[in-house]
Amino acid sequence: MKNNFYLCAALSVILLMHSVVSIFSGDVNNFGRLYLDTIGFSPFGLYLAWAVKLIHLFSALLIWSDRYVKPVSICNMFILMLGIYFIHWQNGWYVVGGGTNGIEFNILLICCFLQLIFNGKRGSGSS
């Protein structure tokens, strides 16, 4: 059994759900056009939104297959940090409970990706 099986499984499911659902619902288009474009990323907001969702989608598959875990983790941590800066910071810490749409979930995911990076038994290439 590979190291961090449950962590990899959870991250893969979270990344799949975060990408696949918004792709099929069309929310990725709305996020690009109605949010990213309006905060200064126009005319590239739609492309950035799709890039993020596709990175999440392929990251889930690569994490699950135990390939390129370190670069995938770095890319996702960068996305999560940008999410904190542009979206979640203004809402405080809590995702639910003491507030809404805060940074706590992003911080947890960043820590999970850090665990994958600094676990010396996982390679950055193939297994």
Polypeptide structure, described:
- It is a single chain.
- The two termini are 12 Å apart.
- The longest helix has 21 residues, at 5-25.
- The chain contains five helices and no strands.
- It is 68% helix and 0% strand.
- The protein is globular.
- It is mostly helical.
- The protein has helices at 5-25, 27-36, 45-64, 69-88, 104-118.
- The protein has one domain.
What are the defining features of this structure?
0% strand, mainly alpha, 127 residues, membrane, transmembrane
Short description:
The protein has helices at 5-25, 27-36, 45-64, 69-88, 104-118. It is mainly alpha-helical and 127 residues long.
Q: Report low-confidence residues grouped into runs of 5 or more.
A: none
Kindly name the structural category: mainly alpha
Please provide the ordered H/E string of secondary-structure elements: HHHHH
Strand percentage: under 5%
Number of DSSP helices? 5
Give the fraction of residues assigned to helices. Answer: 55-70%
Return the average pLDDT rounded to an integer: 91
Report the end-to-end length measured between terminal Cα atoms: 12 Å
Number of strands: 0
Principal-axis shape equals globular
User: Total domains, how many?
Assistant: 1
Describe the biggest sheet?
none
Could you tell me the radius of gyration in angstroms? 15 Å
Describe how the helices and strands are arranged.
Elements: H1 5-25, H2 27-36, H3 45-64, H4 69-88, H5 104-118
Helix pairs in contact: 1-3, 2-3, 3-4, 4-5
